[in-house]
Write a structure and sequence with these properties.
It contains 14 helices and 4 strands. With about 375 residues, it is mostly helical. A hairpin with a 5-residue loop joins strand 3 and strand 4. The longest helix has 30 residues.
Length: about 375
């Protein structure tokens, strides 16, 4: 059969039929195409390498600091272990245990950790931030080479690393509040029993998604300099946050089982690699979701209609008549202006979570 122009009708492919089923599925397909065309898996793999290298040094330094704080705040060690176990259960403990990293052992070696461990943590952590930024720039079609003063850029990376750490600690602390205050909440609403437990679980998941959304938004906003609509960026962060909560639940099941097997240390290390890799992929998926958001596409179409590039710069026609940018954009280091309010806000959130958790245990 042929159409009016004499050409054959082309049967829609699988992707076209799925996209036609609903706007959400169409958005998913656009995101996957965007992610694949920019080699998102490779970008996530590069960030995973330094992410895994930085995990244990950063953990050791954190343990050493918490061990010293325990002299004036006795519950500091348990609060830290509880917070970390909320994300990766079965890895750490206060006292020595089979297949786990003991906080007491690390605290006793604090002087060595403050020198060698801190240097290693800074090297790997800053490279993780740089690798994650390069991956995000790749997703955003931005140059991956940093411009400007290298010392200033690394200083910004250090501040960003600290802020993201505060965001992560705050997200774990706040996300665990519904569980820590479970009995109080159930008594207040008058819903004891299975129904109350289900509602409490749903509340915990909802709070976890909310604070994880802030975590991913901070990553998107601090590392690259995305020229995307604010609402689209928040929706991308929400998309990543939902996936992050699913990964946390899945990792919890695996790590609880892995801690009891003879090769627990190897199993935990492999699980960490997979966890960090999929976390990095979620970061790339989230920014890809924002790039293919309807609002973003409408803004790009409006700019192209005005003869401008996607970032609003003037464009000129080349010899073949194609639109090209008439200048080259250099990527500046992340805007530090967002760091201070984030650090203060999430620092207070983490402190609130720790104090409430302590008061719950005292009761």
């Amino acid at each position: 059969m042929s159409d009016d122009g004499g050409g054959p009708h082309e049967k829609p492919g699988i992707k076209e039929r799925i996209a036609a089923a609903s706007p959400f599925l169409a958005h998913v397909i656009r995101m996957l195409d965007h992610y694949g065309q920019r080699r998102g898996n490779l970008a996530a793999g590069g960030a995973t390498y330094f992410g895994f290298l930085s995990f244990f040094p950063l953990l050791a330094v954190s343990f050493a600091v918490v061990g010293q704080l325990a002299e004036v705040y006795p519950d500091a060690q348990q609060d830290f272990v509880d917070a970390l176990s909320g994300v990766l259960p079965g890895i750490v403990s206060v006292d020595p245990a089979p297949g786990r990293i003991a906080l007491s052992d690390i605290a006793s070696n604090a002087p060595a950790i403050y020198t060698i461990g801190l240097a290693t943590a800074l090297y790997a952590g800053l490279n993780w931030v740089s690798g994650l930024r390069d991956g995000l720039n790749q997703m955003l079609d931005l140059p991956t080479t940093e411009a400007g003063n290298i010392v200033k850029a690394k200083g910004t990376d250090l501040v960003t690393l600290v802020v993201l750490g505060l965001v992560l600690v705050a997200s774990v602390s706040i996300g665990g509040l519904p569980v820590a205050l479970g009995s109080t909440i159930l008594d207040a609403v008058g819903l004891p029993g299975p129904l109350g437990t289900v509602l409490l679980t749903l509340l915990s998941v909802a709070v976890g998604v909310a604070v994880s959304t802030l975590l991913f938004w901070a990553i998107f906003r601090l590392l690259p300099k995305p020229d995307l609509p604010g609402a689209a960026l928040w929706r991308g962060a929400l998309f990543s946050a939902v996936g992050f909560e699913l990964i946390k639940q899945f990792a919890s099941l695996i790590l609880r089982g892995a801690s009891s097997v003879p090769v627990a240390s190897l199993a935990i290390a492999l699980t960490l690699v997979v966890w960090i890799y999929y976390f990095s992929r979620l970061v790339m998926y989230g920014v890809s979701w924002a790039c293919t958001d309807e609002e973003t596409l409408a803004e790009i179409a409006a700019l192209e209609g005005a003869g401008l590039g996607e970032d609003g710069r003037d464009r000129v026609a080349d010899d073949d008549g194609a639109w090209v940018e008439d200048d080259v954009v250099e990527v500046e280091p992340a805007d530090v202006g967002y760091v201070r309010p984030l650090a203060v806000g999430f620092g207070l959130g983490a402190l609130l979570g720790g104090l409430l958790g302590r008061s719950t245990r005292d009761d």
